[in-house]
Automatic annotation (TrEMBL):
UniProt protein name: SDR family oxidoreductase
Family classification: Belongs to the short-chain dehydrogenases/reductases (SDR) family.
Species name: Falsiroseomonas oleicola
Signal peptide: none
Alphabetical list of CDD domains matching this protein: SDR_c
Pfam families xref list: adh_short_C2
Keywords attached to this entry: Oxidoreductase
PANTHER family reported in the protein's UniProt record: OXIDOREDUCTASE, SHORT-CHAIN DEHYDROGENASE/REDUCTASE FAMILY (AFU_ORTHOLOGUE AFUA_5G02870), SHORT-CHAIN DEHYDROGENASE_REDUCTASE FAMILY PROTEIN
Length: 248
């Protein structure tokens, strides 16, 4: 059910963390993959990992807060790969605080990049009867004093996913989302907080029944399921993937 041989997958924010694991997961399942991100070094490293799996690997350095760079990446990726079967909107500006700058980052990258990439990919997705997966967060389900802007834009993505599903459904395109809990990986924010903010880290850790933070691969596996024929009757849903963190 997770055989994507011959399929064409685009992953926004695909150079590290969750996005990297999603891109590699699709490549391991046989898909040709295009990724974009801002950091050229991380982007090239992940592109090389994808190519080593024997599939077409395409990468573009882009600032997804800039409209033309979003659509340019999608159009170029579709031309190189030969279409679009799956679009994963994973990029985040990580605008956390209640400031003009953080609100702008979150709205431009988390929200408008999702809107713009989806619009640009729509003709290809409709032709392929493909799917979109948006990456939200459990932060979108509850108030946040620490990261109000981030929580709000992630809540917006949950709502927009259902609106997209209703709009694209008649065209045979499914739209779903995942809402990860706290995910730890080398170089990521939670690894950094383990030493810089141990009280916060340990408070979050104590809220997870399994006693550990999640891994990027655990999010990628759910994304692959949502894009696969096993989820062919699933659309408009946001799947929480948090090891029970929301239960506390």
């Amino acid at each position: 059910m997770t055989n994507f041989a011959g399929k064409h997958v685009l992953v926004a924010g695909g150079s590290r963390g969750i996005g990297r694991s999603i891109a590699l997961g699709f490549a391991q399942a046989g898909a040709n993959v295009s990724i974009c991100a801002r950091d050229p070094a991380a982007l090239e490293a992940t592109r090389a990992e994808i190519a080593a799996l024997g599939v077409t690997a395409h990468a573009v350095s882009a600032d997804l807060g800039v409209a033309g760079q979003v659509t340019g990446w999608v159009e170029q990726a579709a031309a190189v790969l030969g279409g679009v079967d799956v679009l994963v909107n994973n990029a985040s500006g990580f605008g956390a605080k209640d400031t003009e700058e953080d609100w702008a980052r979150g709205l431009n990258v988390d929200v408008m990049a999702t809107v713009r990439a989806s619009r640009a990919a729509a003709p290809f997705l409709k032709a392929a009867r493909g799917s979109i997966i948006n990456v939200s967060s459990i932060s979108g389900y509850r108030p946040s004093l620490r990261t109000p802007a981030y929580a709000a834009v992630k809540a917006l993505l949950v709502n927009y996913t259902s609106s997209q599903a209703a709009a694209f459904g008649p065209e045979g395109v499914r739209v779903n989302a995942v809402a990860p809990g706290s995910i730890e990986f080398p170089g990521g924010s939670w690894e950094e907080r383990r030493s810089s903010a141990p009280d916060l880290y340990n408070r979050v850790l104590a809220a997870i029944p399994f006693g550990r933070l999640g891994t990027p691969e655990e999010i990628a596996e759910v994304v692959l399921f949502l894009a696969s024929p096993a989820a062919r009757w699933v659309t408009g849903q946001t799947i929480i993937v948090d090891g029970g963190q929301m239960l506390s």
